[in-house]
Amino acid sequence: WQRLVIERGYVARGVPRRYGGAECPPDIMRAQILGEEFARARAPLGLVNQGISMFVPTLLEWGTEAQKQDWIARTIRGELIWCQGYSEPGAGSDLASLRTFAVEDGNDFIINGQKIWTTTAHAADMMFALVRTELEAKNRYRGITYICLSMQTPGIEERPLRTMTGAAEFNEVFLTDVRVPKHQVIGARGDGW
After folding, report:
1. CA–CA separation, 78 vs 100, rounded Å?
2. Lowest mean pLDDT: which of 32-46, 51-65, 175-189?
3. Through-space distance between the first and last CA atoms of the chain, rounded to whole angstroms
4. Which residues of 113-129 are buried (b: 16+ CB within 10 A; e: fewer)?
């Protein structure tokens, strides 16, 4: 279904064809009509997840060509599932209070810390996360890096957070000496790296 709705230009409209999208010009009216018609037909208008709605637009704006080629098409087709690593214990969604940190080690970063309320971490292939890379930054809004990592990387432990109904769509994720290649950083790091 996802392949079909992309081919017909119903979803992934703003994603260039070279990355697997429909490459349609922005058109708010058309998007509204499509949404209404799919709802009327009780048909799903493609996949909706954090990889498609949050990661792909960021990657289109800030990613390298190699990152775009590697991740966009697989993400919009639903072949690569992402989770978001932003919130942390004691900081919630106050990203300036991040304590998960990454230190450089040759061509890699080594990440240590914890993320919480990580939706679908238990089912994700990859995580896009914000980590502190400049521990001594004078401005707490600086020194934060956007990095991507495989959920299969050694040192990552995911634990479900059960709700009162017993469901566990949220997770806490522990990162202990997680080694990630520097080429998986998206955009400029911290204070202009």
Report:
1. 28
2. 175-189
3. 41
4. bbbbbbebbbebebbbb
pTM here is 0.88
Alpha-helix residue ranges (DSSP H) falling in 63-188: 65-76
What is the pLDDT, as a whole number, of residue 141? 83
Q: Which two tokens stand for residue 40?
A: 């009327």
**What residue has token string 């959920």?**
151
User: Which residue shows structure tokens 């070279």?
Assistant: 18
Kindly list the distances between the CA atom of residue 116 and the CA atoms of 121, 124, 161, 178, 183, in Å, as whole numbers in the listed order. 10, 15, 9, 17, 25
CA angle 172, 114, 50 (to 5 degrees): 60
In 3D space, the residue among 147, 120, 117, 115 whose CA is nearest the CA of residue 48 turns out to be 120
The answer to whether 159 and 172 are in contact (CB under 8 A) is yes
